[in-house]
Design a protein that fits this description.
The chain is α/β, with parallel strands linked by helices. The chain is 36% helix and 9% strand. The protein has 15 helices and twelve strands. It has helices spanning 2-12, 40-52, 68-79, 82-85, 101-111, 131-142, 158-165, 189-196, 214-228, 248-254, 264-300, 360-368, 376-386, 457-468, 479-484; strands spanning 30-32, 59-61, 91-93, 119-121, 148-150, 176-178, 205-207, 234-236, 313-319, 322-327, 430-432, 438-440. Strands 1-2-3-4-5-6-7-8 form an eight-stranded parallel sheet, with helices on one face. α6 (131-142) links the parallel β4 (119-121) and β5 (148-150). α2 runs parallel beside α3 (68-79) and α5 runs parallel beside α6. The radius of gyration is 28 Å and the shape is flat.
Length: 485
């Protein structure tokens, strides 16, 4: 073998130097130190040192270490400082770190008014069901943009935590919560039912696996979802005692309902039907909301006089380093109820229908037929958005790169600059072809290849807009509102 290697060296020259291991662009902003032996304050300081050595950190995965309360306070004390706030962390995982209530309070302080963090995984720690800690955490979530929270496998939380956490929870961007194996019993069911049936609930996913809810508790939750919840599209109730035979306590707790004749298969079918209904309505609501915006923007946008200056200017930054000034002026709804003057001369017989000359009330009523499934509140928010010039995109493009990452399989992917043999165009720009038409840098709506490994910026903005106008789920209007309308 040595002779062959030596012969190859003489024939082809000296061996090439091995290149550095390839690291993806996304992984460079991820800190993954699972089961790395991080302990207490020294382990937290090691993580802080790793964060400061990077320009960007978006994910912090520190599961299966021993940070404890001291390390958690040290870490989140840094993240809550001015130096730590510069890092736009989207996901934090601290499962199995022996963190108690002191650490959870430190996390809550970091979470307060945090508009970046989206996912927080805290399963299998040492949290206790302290009412004050539960309230602080709920209020912190209300002021943040957190979407996913996992508290699974914290069996000491018990019913006390849910009884104090859910009544204070009012977070419109909160989508998923995991309460699996949290020591919940039937005492937590009334609090779960009250939250699921209230307008404060915006959850799409709820997991309650491994809790002793029994048949009466599960039946109450499933009935609440069927009758008054239209946001949940996924729910897990495995190992909650619904497959066990009902005992005397189950029968006495339910009262008039005969629990003994209710099969767990029937409960599962009922839940599946409710979730399927919610998912179908969610799809229809989002589809009609986008369609209503498309047409109402054209019909309701009022032309502004060049000489008319708005009272205030709204600065709406479209990126972290670019601020586009947009003017705010909306007089659409201010004209409702005002006297309407008829035109002096009738329109020619062959002219188009003068929709914009109708009273505002009739215009809005006609547009409501484009989205019959939406509630009055949802339509009002969309029409307000569509008629406001402040919501229009900026006329001049931002100097920063805010577009989609182009598909590597597309020809324009190589147009990154002179060194790449391209034209130096930023991703997300539109290329004009000589024969007409255009080529988008986001080929076929796919970012970073057919696998869609990176979320398209347009899709992200669309989802953000649907959440801002409250059109991520079906809204059921009460009879008083419908009678009033």
């Amino acid at each position: 073998m040595d002779a062959l290697m030596f012969s190859a060296f003489n024939k082809h020259g000296p061996p090439r130097r091995t290149s550095a291991p390839k690291v993806s662009l996304a992984a460079r902003s991820h800190i993954e130190s699972m089961d790395a032996g991080l302990r207490s304050i020294s382990g937290a300081q090691e993580v802080i040192k790793d964060i400061l050595s990077r320009r960007s950190v978006t994910k912090l995965i520190l599961g299966h270490n021993e940070l404890g309360d001291d390390g958690c306070e040290e870490l989140f004390g840094f993240l809550s400082s001015d130096a730590g706030r510069k890092y736009k962390i989207v996901e934090i995982s601290l499962n199995s770190n022996g963190i108690g209530n002191r650490g959870l309070l430190a996390i809550s302080r970091y979470l307060r008014d945090n508009a970046t963090l989206r996912e927080l995984f805290l399963q299998n720690n040492a949290f206790m069901g302290d009412p004050s800690v539960a309230i602080v955490l709920a209020l912190a979530i209300n002021s943040s943009r957190l979407e996913v929270l996992s508290l699974a496998s914290n069996s000491a939380l018990a019913d006390t935590f849910v009884a104090n956490f859910l009544p204070k929870l009012d977070a419109p961007y909160f989508r998923e919560i995991y309460f699996s194996v949290c020591g919940l019993t039937r005492e937590a069911v009334p609090h779960l039912v009250e939250f699921l049936t209230s307008p404060r609930c915006s959850l799409h996913v709820l997991k309650l696996n491994g809790n002793r809810l029994r048949i009466p508790g599960v039946l109450s939750v499933v009935r609440a979802i069927r009758n008054a919840n239209y946001t949940l599209v996924r729910m897990e109730l495995y190992a909650t005692g619904i497959s066990q035979e009902p005992d005397d306590s189950d029968a006495s707790s339910e009262g008039e309902d005969s629990v003994g004749v209710v099969r767990w298969q029937d409960i599962e079918i009922d839940l599946r039907r409710s979730l399927t209904r919610n998912l179908t309505l969610k799809y229809d609501v989002e589809k009609e909301a986008l369609a209503l915006l498309r047409y109402s923007r054209i019909l309701l946008m009022r032309p502004q006089s060049r000489d008319a200056l708005p009272a205030t200017a709204i600065v709406s930054p479209c990126s972290e380093s670019c601020s586009c000034i947009q003017m705010s002026s909306n007089t659409l709804f201010s004209s409702i109820g005002q006297p309407y003057s008829l035109p002096a001369t009738p329109s020619p017989p062959n002219s188009y229908f003068p929709f914009t000359r109708l009273p505002t009330e009739l215009q809005l009523h006609v547009l409501s037929f484009l989205a019959p499934i939406l509630s009055n509140g949802q339509r009002y928010r969309i029409l307000t958005y569509a008629s406001s010039p402040a919501t229009l995109p900026a006329l001049l493009p931002c100097l920063t790169n805010g577009g989609c990452i182009p598909d590597p399989a597309s020809p324009q992917f190589t147009m990154g600059g002179p060194t790449a043999g391209g034209f130096g165009l930023s991703p997300g720009l539109t290329l004009r072809k000589r024969g007409g038409g255009s080529v988008s840098a986001c080929a076929n709506g796919k970012c970073m290849g057919a696998g869609n490994s990176v979320l398209c910026r347009r899709e992200a903005e669309r989802s953000q807009w649907l959440a801002s106008v409250g059109c991520t789920a079906f809204e059921l209007e009460d009879e008083e509102t419908l009678r009033h309308d």
